[in-house]
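Troubleshooting entry. The earlier prediction with adenosine monophosphate gave an output that would not parse, so I re-checked the input for stray whitespace and re-submitted. Clean input:
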Amino acid sequence: MIQAVCIKQVADTETRVKVAADGKALDPAGVTWILNPYDEFALEQALRVREKLGAGEVVVASLGGAGVAATLRNALAMGADRALHLRADAPPPDSLAVARALAAELRPLSPDLVWCGRQAVDGDAAQVGPMLGELLEMPCVTAVAGFELEGRTAVVERDIEGGREVVEVQLPAVITTDKGLNEPRYASLKGIMAAKKKPIEERPAQLGEPSLEVISLALPPPRSPGRVVGQGVEGVQELIRVLRQEAKIL
Amino acid sequence: MSVLVFIEQREGQIRSVSKEALGEGTRLAEKLGGEVVGVCPAASDPGLASLGDAGADRVLLAAHERFGLYDAAGYTRAVCQAAETVKPDVVLFAASAMGKDLAPRVAARLGMGLATDCTALDVEAGRLIATRPVYAGKAIQRVGFRGTPALVSLRPKVFAAVAGAGRRGTVERLPVSDEGSPSGARVRRVVAASSGKVDLTESEIIVSGGRGLRGPENFKIIEELAEALGATVGASRAVVDAGWRPHSDQVGQTGKTVSPKLYVAVGISGAIQHLAGMSSSRCIVAINKDPDAPIFKVADYGLVGDLFEVVPALTEAVRKLNAQHV
Ligand SMILES: Cc1cc2nc3c(=O)[nH]c(=O)nc-3n(C[C@H](O)[C@H](O)[C@H](O)COP(=O)(O)OP(=O)(O)OC[C@H]3O[C@@H](n4cnc5c(N)ncnc54)[C@H](O)[C@@H]3O)c2cc1C
Ligand SMILES: Nc1ncnc2c1ncn2[C@@H]1O[C@H](COP(=O)(O)O)[C@@H](O)[C@H]1O
């Protein structure tokens, strides 16, 4: 069984956003880079599948600049077998271009399972996974929080408004992962040592024409400053009053 | 210039997020000067003629016995077929569980750009510009599209539905081709959430509890306040990770993004990842015993105090108010 896991390097979720001089992108100065949290669930689940089957290969693929190598190395330390680095110095903010570049590299691998995160927490697009499904002509289930594999059929669960969908999907398939699916492991010392010997293949990403363009990136307008309306139980009547008279909610 | 709107139904009910999308579609069509066309995959007509009042000139019903439950491949085909016949300039989806899943497939199939989870749309020099929060709401991106149709999904509860639009709402059948092979993924069943409660993303009022509650049993006081307010209960990640609440209750960067009319944060410190999910709420109330808690920086109204005293008193006050109103 060949599994591909698409992983993206993103700014740490604690990052205070500063806009770059071009007014269109994040200023990378001082940013700590991490593996997209949703992609940790994807990688963890792929590793579990490989461990359960006792065979197979987990290939991690990432499109991005030189710094991405560190994130790929970390994925190898967690247990992936090899890595593909699709070199693009600035990953486009356009998921379709990214999905096309990933699809071009994944197709020749003939993966049985392609894993993605539900969304990358930088652009919050939540697009690449289902786009890969279309481009690779595989069924795709998104935002999966439960996964069982029985032969060539996976039974997965995903949250929808007011409930859960139980979906049956035939392999090969693309799955995007949500929080709640599993608890991702940390790289062990042994894993970190082993990762040093694992291959990272690098080649230029085949990025076509973008389908979107960023016009501007800006900080959100600040919320108008609020105020403390009171202390303890004595504050309750005042809170009720402002909610009725100022906010006109109650 | 026309606008195509994906109309979502579950169990034969047209979902309100689709009326929000129709509302925005109507506003765009007025600026662009074209018609508003809905497309609805369903097992049978869920009452689409009623959508004239919500802003639809025409609604294409893509009926198929398999379309009772969400069928990603089939719905994708139906929306792409509708796009081929209508030749819209804009296709709108709600950024609901279904819309989030469907829109990227349609975009890939049509080879067109998609802006997801948008909070505003403008037409500038005849061109659609989409505004969307990125970095979990810590920044706002404006994007333009190369080519048409422009594909957009809209954040629930941000765009207003219209009522009494008085458009025709003519229902037409859209034949769905059944490209032979069944899709490789099939929804087996839908398990309803135990309480059948309103989803957080669709709630007008949310009361969320955090680690300040000290234990799952104490969520009773959150539930009581929520009930008095007609609200849905949410939670911080700390309490979800502790197993006090299900993941579907989590608000924040790795949970749900919500924009209710009123968000009450109880015993929640206001970590940046929590704020990411709720700072677009219209009114935020924070109840916390620590006057320096970061949540007070985004709260419109703060109450400093012990939640175990304040919340029951607040619940009581709201109940009294409710009693006066009936
Ligand atoms: C990658 C990543 C993603 C994350 N995603 C999310 C997310 O989606 N959602 C999310 O919420 N968090 C998320 N977090 C976690 C976040 O950083 C915080 O750890 C979490 O939000 C804290 O939850 P809390 O406010 O309930 O707990 P705490 O930070 O422990 O705050 C408890 C608060 O309760 C108050 N309190 C205690 N007792 C009382 C009392 N008796 N009366 C009144 N007040 C009281 C305290 O003053 C304190 O402010 C994420 C973190 C990471 C790293
Ligand atoms: N540059 C990238 N390299 C590798 N995988 C990516 C990249 N961008 C997105 N992905 C994958 O697609 C998922 C969704 O990303 P997005 O559509 O950008 O929100 C991510 O969680 C990753 O699994």
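This one parsed fine. DSSP finds eight helices and 18 strands in chain B.
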